[in-house]
Amino acid sequence: MRIYLQTRPNANTIPRFYHLALQEDLLEGWTLVKETGYQGSKGKVSTQHFGNQDDALQAMLQIRDAQIKRGYQVVFVQGQTRPE
Question: DSSP characters for 41-70?
């Protein structure tokens, strides 16, 4: 699953982005990849490991909600929250 957020562009500042990606790893866990920075430039990347998908998804959604409160808007969401 991926979520991409961005601040509103205006004439005085470059928009910022926040990209969250949830990936299953090879050790039967899940990795939450976070990338943040200014639009059009290389962002800062960090990762966080979780033992199960539910915990990883919950952390992802909490980060999304916190960024929305800071003024970011969800631009797109890709993937499913649960495998079928």
Answer: SPPEEEEEEESSHHHHHHHHHHHHHHHHHT
For residue 84, the model assigns a pLDDT of 40
Instruction: Give the model confidence (pLDDT) of 35-71 as tens digits.
Output: 999 998 888 999 999 999 999 999 999 999 999 999 9
| Domain 2-78: which CATH number of 2.20.140.10, 3.90.230.10, 3.40.140.10, 3.90.550.10 | 2.20.140.10
